[in-house]
Amino acid sequence: MPASVLQEPLTVRCEFPDRTTWTARLDGLPNPRLAEDLAHGLAMLVHPHGRVTAKKTVEIYAVTARKMTRVLAEAGFRAGASELTRPLLSRFWLGSSYADERRGRMLLRGYDAATGALTPEIREHLSGRSFHVKARRGTYQPYTESEWNRLTECCKKTVNDSWAAHTAVLGSAAGGTDPRIGGVSQENVAWLLLRNGPMTTEAVRDHIRGHARWGTGKVRPHYLVSSTRDALFPTYDTQIAYRLLFGIYTGIVPDGIDDLGLGDVEWAGDRSVLLDYVKGRTGPEGITLPPRAVRLLVRWLEHSSVLRRFASPEHQENLWIATSLHVAGRAAEVVTVPTTGKAQRTWVSSRELTGDDGAPLLVHRGRIRTTYQQLLARRGWTGRTTIDPNHTAQVEGDHYLTATTPAQRDAVESIIEDGQADILRKALPPVVLPDEQTAQLVNDFPEAVARLRLDDAAVVELVGGERDVFTAACADQLAGEHGPKGTPCPARPWVCLMCPLAVFLPRHAPNLLRLKAFFYRQFRQMTTDQFVRVFGPYADRLNGEILPRLSAAVMDQAAAQVHDDDTEIPLRPEEITR
């Protein structure tokens, strides 16, 4: 229900998605006309017209509206918002904080959206740059290893326990009947809830009234109904555990997780999921979920499938749903994610989850993402300039690399040194032989033979094909250029194009042309900036330094073997051309 403006006294009555209400008072101010206009602006910011869904946020906006009215009245302004001038607003913004300026601009935009009464000059002013710059917040500190393990294990236990209870109640419902006939038991209550949805205790009692006794012997009907309902339908407690564990497994930003819908989940086979989400700062993003996140998502979809049948159309497509009881209501409701942090704090308190200092653990999902990124960085260098392609190097340096221990800083410096050395190695020209002769390599590339530390036997194996990989002949797959030393190289096929250990011979021409076709397919589906960042250096070397050095006859013969299809290249599911 939209927020409404009431007169005498001037108030804004808000009803939020979780059916809670709150009234903001704007009466008794020295300029009633401006106060009323700002009240209409505040009403437009509240759900469903705007994004405000919590009492605390409305209260903060109301404080700004009262302050704005008083300060402008002291400056002699006694008219409505439609008569505001740019100099007057500029003086107010300059004397305010960043937060007051931002909220004041939002209130005026809301008023204009409701009435269209602002002058063009003020509209232009509101869409321009702010006078104040948002202060830089401190970096998120990652959780310690012990805190991270406790949080992860707590989420896992909650998910596993709730799933076990859910499957047990589903199994018992198969042997139940209508409690009007069979009386109050777990099997019969589960049978009833499975057909009627998440009923309250009062609704179940009304259902059986006049047909069966409410309580008999040691049966505690209130506890029986509530425990059966909570097991059958996920509550906020269960949903919070799933969402936190999903963030721990994927590192997706909190707002991206909360706003997920069923349509954002795209299955690429039985075990691969492509997930589309929206990051507030940058917009739409996507990720291929790791296997354990896929398994968790599958379990959640099955866990919430019973409740989803009773959800309203506006909630049915939301990924995260739960049951919520209201004292005044006679039936439980299906809701989405909590609108305040109270539910999460209660979840932490009920599980006695503590930090290393012994105090209740502060669960901050931004810190979860930071810890995930830090753990990802510690597993090995990914080959990219930044961990997240949507981040600048400065953002990652401020939020991730600076939030490390001294030992981890040493590791980061080692990574930087390795990266600089890798850049120097990539600057070396590729080794391309026009024909497959051992003498050709020894005579024409003596510096390459010395650099690769090849003896006579190794040269024979290299040119003879015994050391071939998909793209080239590799001087040493165990050298650790792109992975742990002593283990087979894990690099993708195109990485060989920039590798100093690669030697390209005529027999590799078909696969090189297959890579070229793959680059063209990727270029058609990616933006230019994305393509240059991901495949640009490899495509440039292939087209400019490798293929031109092969003869026309070799190229013509190789082209006949290329079918321009993804099946010709060993690709992972997320790399397949869509």
Brief synopsis:
The protein is mainly α. The chain is built from 26 helices and 11 strands.
Topology record:
Layout: E1 4-6, E2 11-15, E3 21-25, H1 32-45, H2 55-74, H3 86-94, H4 98-115, H5 120-127, H6 145-173, H7 179-182, H8 186-196, H9 201-208, H10 221-232, H11 236-250, H12 254-258, E4 265-267, E5 273-279, E6 283-288, H13 291-303, H14 305-308, H15 313-316, E7 322-324, E8 333-335, H16 342-350, H17 365-378, H18 393-401, H19 406-426, E9 431-432, H20 438-444, H21 446-452, H22 456-464, E10 473-474, E11 502-504, H23 509-525, H24 528-534, H25 536-546, H26 552-559
Helix pairs in contact: 1-2, 1-4, 2-4, 6-8, 6-10, 6-11, 8-10, 11-13, 11-17, 23-26
Label the structural class. Answer: mainly alpha
Biggest pleated sheet: 3 strands, antiparallel
**What share of residues is helical?**
40-55%
Tell me how many strands there are. 11
Beta-strand fraction estimate: 5-15%
User: Cα distance, first to last residue?
Assistant: 41 Å
Assembly classification: single chain
- How does the overall form come out from the CA principal axes? globular
Which stretches of 5+ consecutive residues score pLDDT under 50? none
Mean pLDDT: 84
Strand order of the largest sheet: 1-2-3
C-alpha Rg (nearest Å) = 32 Å
Number of helices: 26
